[in-house]
Amino acid sequence: FAVFLVFDLFGRNEKGSYLAYLAALLPVNYYWSLGFDPLVAYIILFVLWDITLLRDTIGIYLKKDKEINETLLYLFLGIIIQLIVTAIIPDVNASLKSSTDQVWFFWLPNVHTHPLASVALGFRIAATLMVLLVILPLILDIRDEEATLPILIVFVVVFILPFLYLSFIWVPEAMGVLTFLFSVILFVVLILITRSGKET
Fold this sequence. Notes:
two-stranded antiparallel sheet; mainly alpha; membrane; transmembrane helix; transmembrane
């Protein structure tokens, strides 16, 4: 992971640095496969992704050597691969199902029943930071651009799933209300920072 995190320092002018999103899966899932706490494993994964997202955000807006589309593509690919792994590893070793909940075919960590409040809080913070590090570059990218109302609505709809997840891990009882609130806030922010193209 560290090699791909600093890949640009080698001066190869290639896109190998984006592989950090995928390389982060290796140590995390190895840690989980050894029988350690799955919630801690996911904290490590989210922190590694947070570091990579921060690197790319700096690269996009300060150094101008990163692409937001490439960043989101590799992050999304990493999430998909991780979901596939969560469906396979626990079926190979049933003991790894402890402290997880089955959601469809996937075994995901249960943040609400973890015995250590500090670990659960760390997971929530790391997950929240990851979502913010995805939203912030997109907001900066679309700022002062022309965007019609339907485009803004689609933009908000894309983030409903992340908002649902954040609401679930923080306050599951108010998941619907919080998701709606987050969506409205994002919609208002987008209206304020974009142009319709019809201004006079």
